[in-house]
Amino acid sequence: QGEVARWPVVLFTESTGSTSQAAVAALREAYVQFETVEVDRFGHVMHSDGRAWSLLIAEHLMSSSGQPSFPILYVGGQPLGGSNEINELAAKKELRSCCSAAGAQIFE
Fold this sequence. Notes:
Blueprint: H1 2-6, E1 9-13, H2 18-29, E2 35-38, H3 53-65, E3 72-75, E4 78-81, H4 83-91, H5 95-101
Parallel strand pairs: 1-2
Antiparallel strand pairs: 1-3, 3-4
Helix pairs in contact: 2-4
């Protein structure tokens, strides 16, 4: 939750997922400043219960956002959706304005 509160736009991804890479590209094409958290990079760190942090983080994000997989985009502290929602907003040229309204810096 720390990253979500700290940044207007946060994209949770898997480092090698093609849909995650497409989401990163869509945000870059919209010239939106965003933070990326590659959840699978936490895989080597273990929680005290013996489970990998990456698994715990993924379970929490999917449960709280309602998304079944990565990427998961948070805008203004709220889950906006996954790859389908990102692609839809990008196709309608609304991704930039949505992120801007949440306080994200937009680059020209």
